[in-house]
Amino acid sequence: MIIVKERGVAKKKQQASDDMAGQAAGAIGVLAIAFGVLAAIKDKLGLSWPATVLLTAGAVVALGYGVWRLRTGGKQLLSGTARPSAGGRSALVALKQDDVPVASLDGEQTDAEDVPAHPELTAALRTAGVIGSEQVIRASEVTISQVQSGEVYDFLVPKGRTYEDVEKRLGNLAGMFGVTRLHLTLERSRDSERRVKLLKLHEPPFTRPFPAPTRQEIEAFAGVPLGHDVTGQLVGVPTFDKASLLVAGMTQMGKTTLVNGLITCLLIAYGEFELYLLDGKFCGLTRFEPIATRYESSDDPAVFWDMVQELNARSDSRYAEITEAIRNRQPVPKFKPVIFIVDEAADFFASGATSEEKDQAKEIAKDTRQLVSKSLESGISTVLMTQRPSMNAIPVEVRDQFLYRMCLYVASAGTAKVALGDTYFETVAPISPMLLDPDIKGQAVLFVNGRSALIRGFNFDDKFIWDVVDEKLAKRVKALPEETPLRQAIDLMRSKGVDFMTTSDMAPALGILEDDPVERGKKLKKLLGGPPAEKNSQGRGYRLDGLIAFAQSGT
After folding, report:
1. What is the DSSP letter of 445?
2. Inter-axis angle of helices 255-269 and 462-479, to 10 degrees?
3. What is the dotted CATH code of the domain comprising 102-201?
4. Alpha-carbon distance 325 to 355, whole Å?
């Protein structure tokens, strides 16, 4: 083994020695040839040795440069990217520097002169991170139109981007435009995912109030309007069928006025429905007492609980009818919608210090959750308002059941999450209620079906509301069956222009001549069908709106 290795090493040394000898011989030969060539040139031209060497070296260099230029020019000609020579005499076809192909907004190669970029939008969207640094917004695909409150940018984003890329970065984009997030409103196009309609307001939203809508505008709206958007257009919810609404915001922000506008729009455009009202402010919803099936003005949790239990019982009765219809293979019955509106709802979930009060609070929360979550299919919807949108104001198991959310001005993100949902700020294009101007009453963030909108509720004149209530009341009376004792009692009170009539006055007019007050009251109640009687300073009797509500009530 050792002998073999030594022989291999010796062989390699011998081969290296032979290579060096060969290279030396070759070099000597090249030098001899070069010397001979130089000697021939010297004799031919009669030059000195230094001149001959310099002339020959210059000729070799020039020849090498010419060969290199020929090879480079040929490659550029074949690839279509030839450039003019330094002296402008190149025999190759060259293109202008400005005609160099660039990447277009859709990723294809196109000439820069053919794709002029819109400077404002391209710079703003690039810096905001909406589009890449190599992408542009084509000026030919941008339309800017002026509206009363601002300007609308209608444009296409590059391929590979959608309107959602703009929507997710509206805050950053607002900073590029030098405005706030509330100044920008994005509208999704229905013909392309790449088309964006972006409204930029000239001034903060709702700086100038919009006039309240007319009856015709409310009736023409596709759904239930809740307010104006930042352009003055009506905005609201598609329906209250199988949906409930939670309204939250700090005190004196305009919740009650906003909900008064909601009820007014319901009376105009929602058709026939029953209204249950619990007025925790004692006078906030009083305007609608005449047309309410049940109206209570109280901050007692027991009153709230009683109304919740009543509606749960109605819901159970309706579900029983639905079940029976399905069993008998009959059409599912359609029920008159019921809308339960509660002002200052947080007061009714507060628990006292005693164990009984704490148990009652738990039962109230349980029954309310059932009402909000399980009564929708039976046509009963709930609207809860609270001026204390704290973590414990309304139990989580109740808050989580609301499909529609609305939040007026609040002071913290945590409070906004209570009203709009714990994951609200993870949704697309959220609007922070903390940014709202607290001096502009009735502003709110409306969150419906995963999308946010900035609105301002209607502020109707009292006369307009009273006219709507009176008109609705007259229609309900007109729709009542004629020649019934209940209808006769209602007509009697309306003809005398009174809102309350005692039993002693009503009974004789309806043919009851009983002298005993107790028996007279029993007979009158039976004759009318069993409406609840009331007692005030005049005595025991019936309210006009109570009789009308009783006549309109039913499952």
Report:
1. E
2. 40
3. 3.30.70
4. 43
Tokens of 267: 């009376």
Q: What is the pLDDT of residues 137-182, one digit of tens each?
A: 999 999 999 988 899 999 999 999 998 899 889 989 999 999 988 9
- For 283-326, how does the pLDDT look when each residue is reduced to its tens digit (9 = 90+)? 889 999 988 988 999 989 999 999 999 999 999 999 999 999 99
Alpha carbon separation from 336 to 89, 121, 140, 267, 380 (Å, rounded)? 91, 52, 54, 14, 9
Distance CA 135, CA 141 (A): 14
Q: What is the pTM of this model?
A: 0.70
Q: Which of 446, 450, 440, 278 minimizes the C-alpha distance to 368?
A: 278
Give CA–CA dist 393/347, Å, rounded: 8
**How many degrees, rounded to 5, is the angle at CA 222 between CA 217 and CA 224?**
80
Q: Assess whether pLDDT exceeds 70 at residue 58.
A: no
Run of H or E including 124: helix 119-127
* Token pair in block for residue 160: 């590979």
Question: How do residues 424-433 score in pLDDT, each as one tens digit?
Answer: 888 878 888 9
Q: Where are the domains of the chain?
A: 25-95, 102-201, 222-463, 480-552
- Give CA–CA dist 279/274, Å, rounded: 16
